[in-house]
Every structure is written in structure tokens, then in C-alpha cells.
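A reminder from the course coordinator: this example appears on the midterm review sheet, so study it carefully.

Given structure:
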């Protein structure tokens, strides 16, 4: 009786005769104030649940969606600027270009849109070094790049080897990306990991003056015979490792977002479970009462 009274249905039941005016009962069930509030609550919970479910689905596909972003690969030096030179006459600009083109090829296979500052040794920019670097930064903005990756090789008159990456430590995205790339290069075991360097301490023009996220990778020492041999003969391994680092940065981001929304969904599920249990209880009360009347 209390359950029926709450929903305003006791007026539709003749408890002495044991009869129910079903038509009026259903009408009151749907349109009385208490039921309206309950239905509105159910609708609200349903809408919230659908919204967060859709958000979660979107985040599941973040990796696939993010691969649509544009990445500019910059092969350092080029044309008149040969860069560093090995003990055997190898030009840095040529090895940089080989690595850059292979990185781009691998990134394209992952679904990224790839653009280059140069795809050959023919360059159109100024002989002035500053203007040269500014042109590369301008190209990133002009091509609507989301990320700028510059490829270089180190050189030293002293004994030195290894790879390193320059990044702005105030930019969490590029720091995370750089560390993931270093981890992939570590797996190749071809040289020494010299770590991640902060461009706030060692300024680099293509990072400091870029309008998009930017990193600069020194893939090895052209002055070191071991590094040079690997970079020339296993160029694809180095390029693939760099591309994999980028891909893994997207996968990690997807996982983090999914965990955040999973927590919200669990809370919603808890509330919906409580509401479901309450509705089942009310339904059983109604069924029991109808059985008694009949």
C-alpha cells in the first residue's frame, strides 16, 4: 500500500473489492508528480551515462585519430651547408636526409601525415644561417605541422659517441616524446644514450623560435667510426626506432584518458546499480499486491 501510495495509485484500487482500474492506474503512473521526478532522474542518468560512454569511445580511438596529425621532418643542413664531415669524407647532410626520409616513410605507415623541410640536397633558402633556420620554422607553421622533428649528427675532435635529444623541458609533450624515442634507440644497442638535454640551458633556434612542438635528435657522432658505421648501414633501424617512439607517445596518452573516464563510468555504474535495485523492489511490491487482489 505504501509503494502504491507513493506513486499516487492507491486511488485506483478498491482494496475492499479487490479490483484495479488499470487504465486510470497506468495514466496516473505515468503522469503523477512522483513518477515524473523518477522518470526525469532516470533520463538524466541515462543521458550522462551515454555522454561519458561516448567520451570513452572517443578516447579509445584517440590513437587512430591522432595519427592524422601532421609531422614535419627536418633533415639538418643541406645544399651549400654540408654540416659535419666524417674522417672518410661523409657529409652529415646526406646521412641526415637518409634518416629523415625513412622516418617519414615509417610514420606514414602508422597513419601520420608527413611533410619535410627538404627531400633532396636541393634547397631554396638563404645562405644566411639564421634565415636558413627561420625558413625551416616558417615551413612548419605554413604546412600546419603539429610536431617538428629535426635530425642531426654530432661531431667532436675528441673521442665521443652516442645519441641525445634536445627538448624544451617546459613542454611536457616533447619531453615525454623524447624519452620514449630514447628508450626505442636504447633497444638497438648501437651506441651510448647521452640523455635528454634542455634547450633552456642550451638554446637551439629551431626549437626556441618554432610555433609548434619541436625536438632535435642527434642520432650519433659522425666522428666516431662505430656510430658512423651503424648510421650508414642500419639507417632504417634508427629511423624505425624514432617513429616507434612517436607512435608509443600516442598510445600512452590514449591509456591515460581512458583510465580517467573509466573512473567516472564506475561511479555512474554504482549509482545506476542502486537505482536498479530500488526499481526492482518497487516492481516486486506491485506484483505482490496485484497477486493478492486476484
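Designed residues:
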Amino acid at each position: 500500500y505504501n509503494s502504491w501510495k507513493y506513486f499516487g495509485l492507491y486511488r485506483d484500487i478498491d482494496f475492499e473489492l479487490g479490483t484495479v482500474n488499470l487504465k486510470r492506474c497506468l495514466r496516473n503512473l505515468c503522469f503523477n508528480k512522483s513518477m515524473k521526478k523518477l522518470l526525469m532522474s532516470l533520463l538524466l542518468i541515462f543521458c550522462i551515462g551515454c555522454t561519458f560512454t561516448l567520451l570513452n569511445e572517443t578516447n579509445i580511438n584517440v590513437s587512430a585519430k591522432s595519427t592524422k596529425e601532421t609531422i614535419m621532418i627536418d633533415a639538418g643542413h643541406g645544399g651549400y651547408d654540408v654540416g659535419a664531415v666524417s674522417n672518410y669524407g661523409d657529409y652529415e647532410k646526406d646521412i641526415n636526409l637518409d634518416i629523415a626520409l625513412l622516418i617519414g616513410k615509417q610514420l606514414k605507415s602508422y597513419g601520420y601525415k608527413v611533410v619535410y623541410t627538404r627531400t633532396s640536397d636541393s634547397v631554396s633558402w638563404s645562405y644566411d644561417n639564421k634565415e636558413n633556420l627561420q625558413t625551416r620554422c616558417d615551413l612548419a607553421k605554413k604546412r600546419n605541422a603539429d610536431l617538428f622533428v629535426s635530425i642531426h649528427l654530432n661531431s667532436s675532435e675528441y673521442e665521443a659517441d652516442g645519441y641525445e635529444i634536445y627538448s624544451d623541458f617546459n613542454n611536457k609533450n616533447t619531453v615525454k616524446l623524447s624519452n620514449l624515442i630514447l628508450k626505442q634507440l636504447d633497444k638497438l644497442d648501437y651506441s651510448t644514450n647521452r640523455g635528454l638535454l634542455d634547450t633552456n640551458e642550451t638554446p637551439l633556434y629551431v626549437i626556441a623560435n618554432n610555433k609548434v612542438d619541436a625536438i632535435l635528435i642527434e642520432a650519433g657522432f659522425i666522428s666516431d667510426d662505430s656510430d658512423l658505421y651503424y648510421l650508414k648501414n642500419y639507417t632504417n633501424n634508427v629511423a624505425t626506432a624514432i617513429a616507434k617512439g612517436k607512435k608509443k607517445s600516442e598510445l600512452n596518452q590514449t591509456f591515460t584518458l581512458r583510465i580517467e573516464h573509466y573512473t567516472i563510468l564506475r561511479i555512474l555504474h554504482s549509482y545506476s546499480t542502486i537505482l536498479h535495485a530500488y526499481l526492482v523492489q518497487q516492481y516486486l511490491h506491485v506484483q505482490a499486491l496485484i497477486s493478492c487482489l486476484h
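The two ends are 15 Å apart (CA to CA). Strands lie at 13-14, 19-20, 70-75, 113-116, 147-154, 163-167, 193-198, 213-221.
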